[in-house]
Amino acid sequence: MLGVDSVLHNGGKLVHPAADTPADLPLDGGPLPPQEAPPALVALLKSRIDYARSAYCIDGLEAWNCTTCHAAATSGTTAVATLGSPQAMFGFAAAHPASRTVVVGLRGTRNLDNWIKDLMVARPDAPFDGSPDGSRVHLGFLRAWESIRNDTLTAVDALLARFPGFDVLVTGHSLGGAVATLAAADLASSGFVAADRIMVLAINAPRTGNGVFAKWFAMLPLKAVWRIVNQNDLTPHLPPQFVGFAHHPTELWIADASGHTVVCPVSLDDDELDGIGLPENDLRDVEAAIDAQDWTQFRDLPGIARAPESRDCANSVTRGYDLQKHTWVWDLRIGIRGCDPPDDGSS
Question: Whole-model pTM?
């Protein structure tokens, strides 16, 4: 078990690090400021990022011998099956027996200029059965998911038959992060995989759907959902909110070049969805014990309502966007250049 001293107070209760006692926490539903990301959570997510990076590295992928396939945390990944086409939407599915996880890694775009143009001109379309009226997702993201859906379902079904009881981690960067969100929504809402066995890790992803979709997705009882945003990267601000798009929680914002990372609380807005009540968030009753391999321990950090995005994290950036930040997460390059051999004299 890993302790997280910065957020442990009051006899083992997990509370906001700025609060001296639980009584200091706002109990009226108001949002808390961003809180320091527990080091154990950052370490856990860093250990999984190579799966999203490896979706770009086609050479050696099936043998799990690509440039980014050698991280200690992903060692032993096996039964790799590729999804889609390298010329279009592409990814892979595999198993990691050490963590009892089936992994679906989805590649992002290969052309940032075209990517930005496509984000601005496409329109939302209806998503999945079970989502409420008015729920819409970006048409381009939906088509990308549909193009690899059959491959993904076939591969995941085969892997779960071979490795029963494993959880399913769906991860991706950029376009891959948006498609990972849709994949998780589809897998969970269709019952193909039990929702409480699905984990989502989306990295520098755009807004996937409208506010109705974001709230509905937040209500799905997934095991864990994390959306990493690097500093002032432009892509997570697209498509813009003024055309109706919204991020789902929960955002982890890398706030500066030093890698300082915060968990971004959100609060309910005034336009509640008819017929959809989001679960209340008890700010004082979260278990203190944190196991780096147990994602559920991080799911209900205090102050994080399962609702639309915070204005205090990436959304506090309103100018000076930098596309160079899109191809990094913490100190790791992600994208096509991330597949280059390391420039350390070892190649």
Answer: 0.82
